[in-house]
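Lecture notes, continued. The same structure-token format from the folding unit now serves as the input rather than the output. Read the line below as a description of shape only.
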């Protein structure tokens, strides 16, 4: 399905930083948030004009997105946002679940009131954004909750590793988020994970995390039925 890319107006960059990483970050955010949907064309000329750059950093950013499976590049033809790869989403879920089960085990074996307060602040922010139906901000707070757990467990670098594989499953979660009750279930799950960590209940923390991360994948057939043009089972 071919669509207009409909790039946002504000694509300003921090001129103190290299351009290509920023272009990559901004385009990845637009793709994962589903503002740029599967099939949307990504013309280098249009992107260069929108970012106010030459085509070289645009090409480099698109190559990095291709390496993550988020865009398809057809030489001498076109570049487009890729469909959501269900097999890749399942593998990313397996990786994240394996790592985070150990992370919550580590966190639940020690007392850390400052971390509990920090994670509670992310849950509170999610609640406020849920009420206001600000889904991108809701998801940002969700990501911050999990990233801070990685950092607190001493494996912050693994968060970056997970992100390189998470684009497909994160897009599935974004499609699933507006469904009735989904956001409330995320809030409930986060609170259960945090309460178990605060109570140093390892089994409870791992059980709550397992249920939390399985939510979207358990609904994958329904999501695929609703959005057949957005997914592929290759």
């Amino acid at each position: 399905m071919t669509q207009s890319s409909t790039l946002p107006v504000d694509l300003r960059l921090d001129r103190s930083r290299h351009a290509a990483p920023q272009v990559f970050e901004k385009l990845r955010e637009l793709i994962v948030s589903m503002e740029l949907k599967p099939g949307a064309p990504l013309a280098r000329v249009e992107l260069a004009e929108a970012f106010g750059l030459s085509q070289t950093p645009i090409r480099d950013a698109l190559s990095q997105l291709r390496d993550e499976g988020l865009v398809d590049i057809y030489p001498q033809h076109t570049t487009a946002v890729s469909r959501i790869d269900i097999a890749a989403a399942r593998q990313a879920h397996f990786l994240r679940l394996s790592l985070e089960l150990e992370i919550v085990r580590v966190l639940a074996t020690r007392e850390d009131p400052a971390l509990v307060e920090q994670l509670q602040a992310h849950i509170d922010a999610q609640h406020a954004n849920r009420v206001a139906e600000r889904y991108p901000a809701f998801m940002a707070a969700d990501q911050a909750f999990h990233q801070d757990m990685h950092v607190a467990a001493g494996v912050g670098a693994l968060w970056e590793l997970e992100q390189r594989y998470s684009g497909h499953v994160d897009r599935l979660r974004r499609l699933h988020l507006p469904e009735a009750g989904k956001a409330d279930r995320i809030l409930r799950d986060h609170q259960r994970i945090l309460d178990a960590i605060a109570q140093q209940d390892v089994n409870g923390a791992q059980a709550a995390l397992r249920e939390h991360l399985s939510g979207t994948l358990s609904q994958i057939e329904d999501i695929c039925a609703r959005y057949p043009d957005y997914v592929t089972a290759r």
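Point for the exam: The first helix runs from residue 19 to 32.
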